[in-house]
Specification:
The protein has 4 helices and 4 strands; from the N terminus they run βαβαβαβα. The protein is of the alpha/beta class. Strand 3 (46-50), helix 3 (56-69) and strand 4 (72-76) form a beta-alpha-beta unit. The longest helix has 14 residues, at 56-69.
C-alpha cells in the first residue's frame, strides 16, 4: 500500500516513514509546502492529512487531489506517531 502524509511535524518525518514500513507501506512525506505538490503526491492508495500542523494551502491541495483521483483521505487533528499507527491499522484492511 502506498501512503502520502501531508502535514505533521518536521522532526517526526523519519518516525512516520519507520511506522509506515512496519505496516508494509511505502510512504511519501510532505511536512512543508513544495512547489508542484499536487503532481508530487501522485496516485497513492491513501492520503493522511494531519490538519493541526499543516498550512491551509497544503490541506486544499491534498483534498483536491483526493477528490479528483478517488483516493482515500483520512484527516486527523493530531500528528502523533500513535495516530498514524491507528490510521494505518484501520485502513490496512479497507484498501
Amino acid at each position: 500500500m502506498s501512503v502520502v502524509i501531508i502535514g505533521g511535524h518536521d522532526r517526526m518525518a523519519c518516525q512516520y516513514k519507520d511506522i509506515c514500513k512496519q505496516y508494509g507501506c511505502k510512504a511519501k512525506i510532505f511536512t512543508q509546502f513544495e512547489s508542484n505538490l499536487e503532481c508530487k503526491i501522485g496516485k497513492p492508495d491513501l492520503i493522511v492529512l494531519f490538519t493541526n500542523p499543516v498550512s491551509h494551502k497544503m490541506a486544499i491541495v491534498a483534498k483536491k487531489r483526493a477528490d479528483i483521483c478517488g483516493i482515500a483521505l483520512v484527516q486527523s487533528h493530531s500528528g502523533s506517531g500513535n495516530t498514524l499507527k491507528s490510521i494505518l491499522s484501520d485502513m490496512k484492511g479497507a484498501i
